[in-house]
Every structure is written in C-alpha cells, then in structure tokens.
Design brief:
The chain is an all-alpha fold. It is built from 17 helices and no strands.
C-alpha cells in the first residue's frame, strides 16, 4: 500500500482566529441579562416565568455538555480512529460543566418557584412515597454531587488529552481509557438523576422508567449536529483544514440519523407503555400536553424531531451537503428546545405554549456565557489532538510500521 501525506497545520498554527466574532458572546450576555431582568421584575408572575424559562434554556444547553462528554467517553471506550480530529471539540463541550455549575445558581435560588412539592404541606400520597429521593435537602445534595462528578470526569479526560499533546506517551492514552471505563457508568447514572430531579419532579406525581434514556437520546442527537457545524467552521477557517475530512462529516451525519431513530423509539415506547397501562399516575402527563397549543408542539416533535430529519438524512449525500446540514442543525436546535419546553413549561402554561421575553433572555444569556468560554478553550489549546496514536488513521494517512522498516533493513544487509 503506497503511503501519502496530507498537509497539516502544526500545533503553533492550529489556533482559531475569531476576531470578527469576538464581541458576539458579550452582546448575547448583555441582551440576555437585560431580558431576564425585565422579565423577572415585570410582576404578575414574572419571577415564576423567569424560573421556568431559565430552567428550559438550562436543560437545553446541559444537553450539549452531556452529549460532548458522552462522545468523548465513546471515543476512548471504542478506541475510535475516525473521531480523533473532533475529540478536542467534544472535550471542550464537556469541560463546560464547571461553568454550568455556576449557571445553576439561579435555578437553586428559584427552586421553590419551580417545584411545588418543596413547599407542599402536608405532602400528598405520591410525595410521601417518594420522600427518600424527592425532598429539598436531597435535591440540593444531588445537584452538588452531579456537578462534582461531571466536572472531575471532564477535567480529567481533557487534562490527560492535553498532556498527550506534549509527548504522546502511551500512559496518557491508557489514563483516558481508564477514566472512560468507570465514567460511562457514572455518566448514565448521573444523567438519569439530573433529568429526574430537574425536569421530571416538576410534576412529582408522574412515573416513567424511561425518562433518563429519553433525555439522553435527545441530548446526543442535538450534540452530534452541533459538533458537525463546529467542525465545519474550524475546517473552513483553517485549524482543521488538513485534519477533518469526508469520513468525519459522514460519520457524524450517520450517527445523527441513528439517534434520530433512537430518540423516536424511546419517546414512542414511553408513550405507548403509558397509554397501554392507562394508570392515572402516568397518563395525566400526556393528557396535559394535548391541551391547547401543546398539541401542536407534540406534533412538531413527532414530525420535526423524527420524520423530517429521518427522511432527509437517509440519502448518503445529504450527510455531506453543507447547506442541508446547516439547516438540519438549526432545525435540531429548534426541535430540541421545544422538546425541553414540552417537558418543563406545561405545568406553568397549562393552556398552551407561549413565547416570553424570559425564554429569549435565558437562551441568549446562557448561550453567550458558554460560547465565550468555549471559544476561549479553542483559542488557548490546539484545536485537535497533536499526538494521538490514531491521528494518521483518522486523516487517511498510511504510516509504515517500524517493524516493516527493520525487516527491510535486515533483508538489505542479507
């Protein structure tokens, strides 16, 4: 097999220049903060609307962080070659957890506005049966533990990855695989707890054993197309020009299709099992979401979250089409946000979905903060792993094994 080379920017040149966009995150933060302030002090339930809108936007962006952590863990567990060029992107997304912990403070302060059971006296039968988990003290403890686990795991994986850039020693690769081995169990358990404690317990009477997997499927789904667009932007701007190729974009698009089907399967299974059992403690959750414009939101999730992306992504060339994938990314963001609204807001807006200033303000504020930190990570570190043992394979470059060189030298001497 003939060897070939691909021009790749060295570490010193693999930085990102986003000078013309440098003010955008700050603009988003200011606009978002002003919008949230106006919404909070508006009166007539402004504080409650602020709390629910902020939680909806927060769970949307938490999905991207959890999705980034999952993709990083999968890279190491499966020893993937194709995903090496995008690994640094997913590491940076995951390492936004310390910032997410700070951004969680408004939710903690407004928890009584969101979770009625925190002020319920006396507790109803359902709350009494779930008292071991659904109580105020446990809620705060779980939040602290979740952010500690996520922050440590994402920090450790990223630290080992950056250490690998310096000398490429095998111990860094083994370390990342070790932390991914225990991390995948911690990830699954912690994500499920977060989805239950921060969204499902808004209506604490409801039962669903599939809720954690449901949130997981949507999180990875929206993260895949987000990583696709970020990789595309880095390729067009230079840092990934010689590293990210057709393989990376095709596989990201293929996984997006896979999780489109997986999300639909999980959501349908949850609905079907609840409908089939017809237990009042379960069915009321969906009955509430058939009132007013919530019915239209449900139809959007049915057709927009599944059917449209499914039919679009079936063609192999769609996965490599820049216009199609950009449209799919924006569409996925809209659908996933509406999915979060479908889970969080009906308790506040029982008559149907309405867009409020606080919704836009929360999205701009949290998005601005996270994008500012994410860009800082990209600019301060090489955009892709410099000495990963499978970087050549990911780029489609054949590297002649050292053993083959030794054998040929011995034959020459003979």
């Amino acid at each position: 097999m003939a060897s070939h080379t691909t021009k790749v920017a060295p570490a010193s040149e693999s930085r990102l220049d986003l000078s013309k966009w440098s003010k955008l995150p700050m603009i988003l933060i200011i606009v978002g903060a002003v919008g949230l302030a106006f919404a909070y002090f508006k009166g007539d339930g402004g504080a409650k609307q602020f709390a629910y809108s902020y939680l909806t936007a927060y769970m949307f962006f938490l999905s991207l962080c959890l999705g980034g952590l999952f993709l990083t863990l999968m890279h190491h567990l499966f020893d993937s070659g194709w995903s090496v060029p995008i690994r640094r992107i997913t590491e940076h997304l995951a390492f936004l957890f310390p910032i997410m912990a700070i951004l969680f403070i408004p939710i903690a302060l407004c928890s009584h506005q969101i979770y009625d059971w925190m002020t319920m006296d006396p507790p109803d039968h359902s709350l009494h049966e779930k008292a071991a988990l659904v109580n105020e003290k446990t809620w705060y403890i779980i939040a602290v533990v979740l952010f500690a686990v996520w922050s440590f795991l994402s920090w450790r994986l990223r630290a080992l990855s950056l250490a690998q850039d310096k000398d490429g020693a095998a111990k860094w690769t083994r370390g990342m695989r070790f932390h991914s081995a225990w991390g995948i169990f911690a990830f699954g358990f912690s994500l499920t707890l977060a989805a239950i404690m921060w969204m499902k317990t808004i209506e604490h009477q409801w039962y669903s054993t599939m809720y954690g997997v449901y949130y997981f499927a949507g999180s990875v789904w929206v993260t895949l197309v987000t990583v696709y667009v970020i990789t595309l932007a880095l390729k067009k701007s230079g840092p990934l020009a010689g590293v990210a190729h057709r393989r990376q974009f095709h596989d990201l698009g293929m996984l997006f299709l896979v999780f489109t089907v997986f999300y639909a399967y999980i959501h349908f299974s949850q609905y079907f099992l609840i409908w089939n059992a017809a237990i009042p403690e379960e069915t009321f959750w969906y009955v509430e979401r058939e009132v007013g414009s919530w019915w239209q939101v449900g139809m959007l999730l049915l057709f927009g979250h599944f059917l449209i992306p499914f039919l679009t992504m079936l063609r192999i060339d769609a996965k490599l089409s820049i216009p199609i994938m950009i449209v799919m990314t924006v569409w996925a963001w809209i659908c996933h946000y509406m999915d979060m609204a479908f889970n969080v807001l009906p308790h506040l807006l029982p008559k149907g979905y309405e867009t409020h200033l606080a919704d836009v303000g929360a999205l701009c504020f949290i998005g601005g903060v996270l994008s500012m930190v994410f860009v800082k990570y990209l600019k301060s570190n090489p955009v892709y792993p410099q000495r990963d043992p499978r970087i050549a394979e990911a780029m489609g470059v054949y590297v002649k094994p050292a053993t083959a060189s030794v054998a040929s030298n011995l034959e020459g001497h003979a």
